[in-house]
Every structure is written in structure tokens, then in C-alpha cells.
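We were asked to recover a plausible sequence for a given structure. The inputs and outputs are reproduced exactly as logged, with field labels preserved.

PROBLEM: sequence recovery
POSITIONS: 461
GIVEN STRUCTURE:
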């Protein structure tokens, strides 16, 4: 396999200093949970009763087993450039597929509505402590089922129905939860959209300040599904303070870059930070909320009991595993490689004639216009899919009128970086993309040859 970039899988996280959970109780044999876990770690064959058993699934339900095998092959045989996806570690997958998924745990550690939560309480305490340490936050809520649930809880904690909220408009890169009429946010709140400069594609902070002064929102949301540049959280906080608004940073996309030190952190500036634990952070599908001590109770109550029921304790444990991985130097190297790869890919695509929004990227995200090649984005995505290159389309910044806005391609480099690809491979990826857009018949086999050199799970026999 070619020289690879650092992966958390190449380094065992040292969780000893981070796991500040209280000493667990002794079991009937007089050993603590930690002692049992250490003993199990010495015995390579031991695993919890009910741990995933693919052979059992294959015997019992070959139809669904076939789906798992098919998806696994699809992920390994194509070039995965969807900006929101990644290959999470076998350790995260083990926690996700664990018997913790059987446990009901409404409430919070030490204050649950169900019995028998003393063990899963440990998982949540550990996850919370690791998240706080990783992001330097006073409080963390690790129960949000998804990024959307995290945003919903932030609104529930800070807003009343009908309140005015400023967020990036959807055609310029806002998420559905930032005021789409098809989403609870657009129905329950009065969203006012700010946009990017149509020429440069960059946020215009003076224009956002003017809009905030005029509309006096209760909250300002910063964060995007496609903005490829770092956000100026200090500027957003300044605007929020001037206009008496809460600042909510929805950093679903760059949360992993923030953890790895490859993007600035909103934690010192935002009243509430929402994120996803998948995407660049490379954990399980799920949400995370960070805030200061003052808002901690409001946020926790907004998650449970206001917007959610029982926490998914298998996902909470998997988040804890991902936070420990993200605290390692290897993860920092990965995060920086993700951005280096995105820069290299953006440059190479521009060299082949695509227009890159904002002229480049600071993050894992690239948005590109295929119009200079005479192709609309939908046709382009179809040709790429036929070549085994998987990515999304997204709206490109445009004037609100005339509609419709143009769409472009949205690419991300997190998954390919996890696979071990570096800047040299990004040049090959750009060549493959352009060959696929030109409907070169040989490109599918060239894509397979490239990705097979970088298996997402190299230890899989
Ligand atoms: C900025 C932003 N917020 C929220 C979400 C929602 O996350 P989820 O799909 O986990 O609900 C996303 C997902 O892509 C996002 O990019």
C-alpha cells in the first residue's frame, strides 16, 4: 500500500487521563468493570454476549446479510467524495453494534427514569468528559440523535416559536434546519437569510451586521453545508452581542477539523455549538451540543425530555470511542491532511477547467461549477456515478432572482484521507473526475484500481 496519511487506527488512544468516570461498583466476583475490561483486553478472544455476529445474520437473514455485503463492497469499490461521509473505525463500529443498544436510559447519568443504568451511565459520563476535554467546553450533551436533533434542541433551549433567527440562506449553503419551509425551523421560526457575495462566494460580515441591526434576531446561526472557508466566529459573536442575539454555531461539517486543530473553534465565541459526530469527526452517526455552564441545564432539558426520549447508549459509547480517537496526535495529522488534500484537489480541478467557488478551500469541502465544461451538475453527477465516483450536487451562490439558482458539485476529502490518500492521489482523483465527465469508458476500471490501493478497512481479511 502506498505511503499513507496518519489514521487513528495506527495509534491506540490513551484514554486513561480522560476517563474521569467515578469508580464503578464491584460485581459479585469482587472485580470492578475496569478490571474486567482489562482482563478481557488480555484475552483476545473475549467479547460481550450478543456482540455482532455476521455469520448469525447470514444464516438467519441472507437477504439483509446480502445488503450489508453489497454496501460494504460499494463503499470499497468506489471513490467516496460525499463531504458528509467517512469510514469510522472498527472500534466505533464495535461499540455501535454492542449490547448497549438493548438498554433504555431516559434521563441523565445518576438521574434516569429506568433501572439498571449504572453501567451505561459510565459510558455517558466518559463520553461527556472526553467531549469537554477535546473541545475545551464547559458542558457537553452527547445524547442528540443527529445533527438536526442537536439544532432543534439548541432552538428549543433559546427560542420561542415565532422568534426571528438569522442564518445562511439555503441557496447560499444553509442547512434545512436553518429555516427551510420544509423543516420545523422554517415553520416555527421567522428565519431571515444572509448570503455570500455573488462574485467572491465569501461571507460579507458587514452585510450580516446590517441585516442583524435591521431585524434584531433572537439568535444568529453560523454554519453551512457547503461553505468551504473558515468562519470568523469572533465577528459573528460581535454582531450577536451588538444586536442582543444568541450565537448558535452549527459546525456539523468542520467539527472533526476543529477537534484535530485544522480549523478554528467556535467554542470560545458561540453560546451554543451544535455538531455531528460523523462526517470529518469520523464517529458514529449522531449529534453533539457544547455550551457554557450557564446554559447547561437548559440544553440538557431541551434534549430530554423536550425533544427526545431515551438516549441511544450504544451510540453514546461509540461517540466516546470517537472522542478518544480524535484526541490523538494521529487524528490531528489526519485532520490537517484532510484540508491539504482538499486544497490539492481544488487546485487540480481548477487546472482542468472547473470553477471552484471562493477560488479554493480552507476545509474538507469543495464546491465546483461544471458549467465551463458545458455540463450541468446533475448530468455531471450521473456521469461520475457511472464511473464509481460518488459525490453530491449543491446550490451555487447566486442572486435570489432570477431563479432558479445554478447547482454545482460538492466534494469532500475526509473519507479518502481516512483511506490513506494524500496530495499525489488528489491529482489522480481530479484526472478521474474529468475523464468521467468526458465519458471516457476506461475510467471505471481506473477508479477501482485507485481505491483498491487504499482499502478503508485494511485489516479486514
Ligand atoms: C450544517 C449542518 N447542520 C445539520 C446537519 C444535520 O445533520 P443530520 O443529518 O445528522 O441530522 C447537517 C448535515 O449534513 C449539516 O451539514
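RECOVERED SEQUENCE:
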Amino acid at each position: 500500500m502506498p505511503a499513507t496519511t496518519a489514521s487513528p487506527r495506527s495509534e491506540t488512544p490513551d484514554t486513561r487521563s480522560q476517563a474521569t468516570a467515578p469508580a464503578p461498583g464491584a460485581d459479585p466476583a469482587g472485580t470492578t468493570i475496569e478490571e474486567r475490561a482489562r482482563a478481557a483486553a488480555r484475552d483476545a478472544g473475549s467479547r460481550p454476549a450478543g456482540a455482532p455476529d455476521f455469520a448469525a445474520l447470514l444464516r438467519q437473514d441472507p437477504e439483509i446479510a446480502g445488503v450489508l455485503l453489497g454496501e460494504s463492497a460499494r463503499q470499497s469499490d468506489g471513490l467516496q467524495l460525499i463531504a458528509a461521509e467517512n469510514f469510522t473505525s472498527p472500534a466505533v463500529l464495535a461499540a455501535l453494534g454492542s449490547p448497549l443498544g438493548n438498554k433504555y436510559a431516559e434521563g441523565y447519568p445518576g438521574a434516569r427514569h429506568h433501572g439498571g443504568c449504572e453501567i451505561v451511565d459510565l459510558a455517558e459520563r466518559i463520553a461527556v468528559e472526553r467531549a469537554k476535554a477535546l473541545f475545551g467546553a464547559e458542558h457537553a450533551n452527547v445524547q442528540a440523535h443527529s445533527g438536526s436533533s442537536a439544532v432543534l434542541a439548541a432552538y428549543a433551549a433559546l427560542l420561542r416559536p415565532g422568534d426571528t433567527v438569522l442564518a445562511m440562506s439555503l441557496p447560499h449553503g444553509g442547512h434545512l434546519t436553518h429555516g427551510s419551509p420544509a423543516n420545523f425551523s422554517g415553520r416555527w421560526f421567522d428565519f431571515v437569510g444572509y448570503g455570500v457575495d455573488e462574485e467572491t462566494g465569501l461571507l460579507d460580515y458587514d452585510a450580516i451586521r446590517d441585516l442583524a441591526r435591521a431585524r434584531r434576531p433572537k439568535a444568529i446561526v453560523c454554519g453551512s453545508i457547503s461553505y468551504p472557508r473558515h468562519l470568523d466566529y469572533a465577528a459573528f459573536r460581535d454582531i450577536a452581542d451588538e444586536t442582543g442575539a444568541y450565537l448558535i454555531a452549527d459546525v456539523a461539517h468542520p467539527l472533526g477539523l476543529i477537534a484535530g486543530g485544522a480549523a478554528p473553534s467556535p467554542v470560545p465565541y458561540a453560546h451554543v455549538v451544535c455538531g455531528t459526530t460523523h462526517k470529518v469527526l469520523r464517529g458514529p452517526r449522531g449529534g453533539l451540543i457544547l455550551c457554557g455552564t450557564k446554559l447547561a441545564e437548559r440544553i440538557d432539558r431541551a434534549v430530554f425530555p423536550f425533544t427526545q426520549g431515551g438516549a441511544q447508549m450504544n451510540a453514546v459509547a461509540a461517540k466516546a470511542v470517537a472522542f478518544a480517537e480524535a484526541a490523538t496526535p494521529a487524528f490531528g495529522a489526519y485532520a490537517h491532511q484532510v484540508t491539504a488534500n482538499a486544497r490539492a484537489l481544488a487546485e487540480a480541478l481548477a487546472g482542468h477547467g472547473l470553477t471552484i467557488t471562493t477560488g479554493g478551500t480552507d476545509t474538507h469541502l469543495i464546491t465546483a461549477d461544471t458549467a465551463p465544461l458545458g455540463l450541468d451538475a446533475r448530468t455531471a453527477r450521473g456521469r461520475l456515478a457511472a464511473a464509481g465516483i460518488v459525490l453530491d450536487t449543491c446550490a451555487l451562490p447566486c442572486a435570489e432572482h432570477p431563479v432558479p439558482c445554478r447547482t454545482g458539485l460538492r466534494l469532500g476529502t475526509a473519507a479518502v484521507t481516512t483511506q490513506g490518500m494524500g496530495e499525489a492521489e488528489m491529482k489522480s482523483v481530479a484526472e478521474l473526475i474529468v475523464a468521467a465527465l468526458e465519458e471516457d469508458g476506461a475510467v471505471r476500471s481506473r477508479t477501482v484500481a485507485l481505491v483498491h490501493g487504499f482499502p478503508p478497512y485494511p485489516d479486514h481479511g
